[in-house]
Amino acid sequence: MEVKVLDITGKETGKTVTLADAIFGIEPNDHAIYLDVKQFLANQRQGTHKSKQRNEISGSTRKLHKQKGTGGSRKGSIKNPLFRGGGRIFGPQPRDYSFKLNKKLKSLARLSALAYKAQENNIVVIEDFNFETPKTKNYESLVSNLKLEGSKTLLVLPTDNKNVYLASRNLQKAKVTTAADMNTYDLLNAGKLLLTTSSVKTIEESFAK
Length: 209
Description:
By secondary structure, the chain is an alpha/beta fold. The chain has helices spanning 21-24, 30-44, 103-119, 136-145, 162-168, 184-189, 197-208, and strands at 2-6, 12-18, 123-126, 153-157, 174-178, 192-196. Keywords: Ribonucleoprotein, Ribosomal protein, RNA-binding, rRNA-binding.
């Protein structure tokens, strides 16, 4: 699959990049995508939810009234879960929501997400670039020149670039990552996938290993 290469002004450079069929042309595996996205979202959960049980409530332990003769039910403590302010029965406790997935499955999920982007023609390849200063207006100009205003974009760089990252950080619908940190959730969550010519090579080399 050949894609035209654009510059940061949105104009065609006359060059093309061939996206490898072994990466961008595979048959997507929906179940692998589901598992990888599920793991990603589970790993974001803090798991710090907590409610107090009966033995953790502060309050008097005296018996509220005598056992018999009142005509009512027996009541042993004000901390009874049935009373207002009492402990909670089977309430949430801190836990770890993360779980393990095999590396091959996660790799298949990323390949499937890339294949979906290629099938939907949602991949834009641009020349390698850099910003002299980390200003938001620089990244806004890039998105505007590519006519992607209002679209969620994910820019994948071959390596870390501080200026480009800082320029995009204040934009709600823009995200910048590296080829090594690219994940399935971000790929699917983005409307358009922006790749530089170098990041295409980096992605192909990483999946070829």
